[in-house]
Amino acid sequence: MVSRWPWRPYVSPRRFPRSSPSAARKRTSRSVSRDSFGATGTRIQFPEATHKICTSAARLSCWRETSSTTYIFFQTDDPKLGLTPKALGSGFIIQDAFVQWKASTAFQLVGGLMMVPSSRNALQSTASYYTLDISPITTVNNTATQSSALRDAGFGADGFFFDDHLLYRVGVFQGERDRNGRDSLRTAGYVQYDFFDTETSYALVGTALGKKKILAIDVGADNQGAYRSYSANVAADLPVRHGDEIGGQVQYFHYDGRQKFLAIPDQNDVMVEAAYYLHRFKVQPFAKFETQNFVAAVNNIKDVTR
Question: What confidence category does residue 38 fall into, taking pLDDT thresholds of 50, 70 and 90?
């Protein structure tokens, strides 16, 4: 078990916030104009037994509502700056860059570079992870699909029903491309139901630090050619003791690269995270369990439990 200071320097902007621009300015680090906002943030880690310092995320984010129906979001990142091998000159990457048009609450179109809606852990804000980083079993498909930090370029649609408690996201993305830029398109979809507080931001919540009451269930899918991936999750953030929080999630994945991605053997993976936030001390001890189980007997030697 490891403890950390749960400093949250950046919170993902809500898509089409319903509050006024003046109210929104209070939640961001700087207002550029009446309807344009920006934020910067850095998270610093001290990896155990490595005697070094690294930044897990250094970001610059900008977003603008050009009208009541159009929203633009742009975000850069310099991830894992200072890790071995040290590469301080690697520079920033474009993390997100998309435009969204809102026809109604139930139907919004989006296009650009964005998170692929395949699982809850893949859609979580890095600023609210229970643990220090994303689970490796969430990124099993990242390299084969030529994703950029779980993002891909494409078009999608999303929306909300039942007072924002039921959300869906679907999309068509580039996925893996051959040297001539040809291949079948990648498709992904995600459906979630929140029983208590709702989640309407671009990035979903990990820990809410006692500020929200969340109980959510979801399923997701990610396909390209013969490749298949499915996910299911139960997540909870429950405020207790006037500011503390009991939180955690159980995430299931099934990956099968088939003939499309030979580097992704048929497997069933499970991740369990649990944390308790102590608001008085601003500390959040957490525990994590992961298992990666390969279906074919010949791959059983690769099974991992940690």
Answer: low
The token duo for 93 is 């990457």
Pairing of strands 54-65, 36-45: antiparallel
CB 70 within 8 A of CB 60: no
Q: What is the pLDDT of residues 121-162, one digit of tens each?
A: 999 998 899 998 899 999 999 999 999 989 999 999 999 999
**Token code pair at residue 272:** 């369990």
Residue 121 token pair: 């852990």
Residue 213, number of CB atoms within 10 A of its CB: 15
Residue type, 70: T
Domain spans, the chain: 21-305
Alpha-carbon distances of 270 from 33, 92, 129, 142, 261, rounded to whole Å: 45, 32, 17, 17, 21
The token pair that represents 46 in the structure block: 């001290």
Question: What single-letter DSSP state applies at residue 81?
Answer: B
CATH number for region 21-305 = 2.40.160
Residue 121 contacts residue 251 (beta carbons within 8 Å): yes
84-106 tens-digit pLDDT: 565 554 567 889 999 999 999 99
What is the distance between the alpha carbons of residues 38 and 59, in angstroms, rounded to a whole number? Answer: 11
Beta bridge partners of 108: 102, 158
3-state secondary structure of 78: coil
The Cα-based distances of 58 to 30, 46, 78, 132, 279 in angstroms read: 17, 15, 5, 14, 25
pTM above the 0.85 mark?
A: no
CB within 8 A of 207, min separation 6: which ones?
6, 128, 129, 130, 237, 245, 247, 275, 277, 284
Cβ contact 207:284 at 8 Å = yes
